Every structure is written in C-alpha cells, then in structure tokens.
Amino acid sequence: MKLYNYFRSSASFRVRIALNLKGLAYEQVSVHLTRGGGEQLAESFRALNADQLVPVLEDDGHLLTQSLAIIEYLEETHPQPPLLPRDPVERAYVRSLALTIACEIHPLNNLRVLRYLVRDLGVSDEKKDGWYRHWVERGLAAIEARLLAECRQGLYLLGDDVTLADVLLVPQIFNAQRYTCRVDHVPVLMGIFDRCMQLPAFIDAQPSKQPDSE
Q1: pTM surpassing 0.70?
Q2: Less packed terminus of the chain by CB within 10 Å, N or C?
Q3: Mean pLDDT throughout 192-208?
C-alpha cells in the first residue's frame, strides 16, 4: 500500500490511524500542501486525484480517495480489528458521529476554504482564525451534547472499543488545539481524546511522527 498524504492533513491523519489500528504496512508519499503553492495542485497529482486533495491510497493498482471511503475500504478488506460495531443501530450511531466531523466541521476549516477566505474574499488572518474557532468549537459542543444526552460513551465514543468515530475525533481535536480553540467546554470529548492518545496506533499516526513533519 502507498499513501499519498500530508503530515498536518486531518483527513490523512485519519487514514494513518486506521492503517495502524489494522496493523497494515504502508509507504508514505508526501504531498506538501503549502510548499510551492501546494504540491496537490500539480498536474502529476491531479492524475491521481482530480479533486487535488489528500489522502490518496494506492492498493493493488487501485487508487482510492476520500478518507472515509478509504477507511471503509480497509474495514471491508481487513475486518479485524473492526472499526464499526456489528449492531446496525450502533453502526449508524458511529457513522453519524464520524460524518458530523467529516461533513459538518472539517469542510468549513479545510485549507482551501481558509485560503479562499483570505486570498479571494480579503478576510484578515484574525477573522479567518475566528471563523475557524467558531465552527470547530460549535461543532465539538454539538457532539459533546449528543454524548451527554445519549450516554453511549465509555472509554471511547461508543463503549470501550475504538471505532471509526474515535478515528475521526482525534485529528479534529489536534487541529482545534493547533488553532487555540476552546476545548474546556467539551470535557467528555477531551477525556476520550486523551485515552486515544495513549494507544500506539494514534501516537504513531500523529503529525509530529511523520517523515515529512516540519
């Protein structure tokens, strides 16, 4: 397997965690998102992914894009240990938490969105960072409220087993901390984050551990 990714990309971070949890060996190819205007914008990378986004997973001659699709592919091809529970209701719950992060929080704070705010709309860096903090803090608060209402969490977001939802949560918290977002309003999430970051699969996937880390 070959993973085209960037050390700070939260979507790439998710896939690295999943690969580690599955115990799968993979080669990393760095696609630097800021150097030279962004290596993801080069024609050579566009041939791999027309969206010009990381990550891209190459496996057995197949090119896979979109982090959640990649992780579900890994789940189907390497089902142990499982990242989705067997019960359909619990499976939907885990997917719902994961999609809240992937679809409701992350897209508003993706690098290309932040660049557009500054370069095309003339938003100041201060206001751009305020935009980031607003949507991340609001999104995390919504997940926290759901956990408190449904009480399905244990050591992790669903009981005591790591699931897809935890794989999505950790990179989002990393980004929140990087942009100095408030996290004191989500103590349950932070407890789960801290427990995840005691596991080798999460530790080894974090940005500072990657070969292209700056």
Answers
A1: yes
A2: C
A3: 98
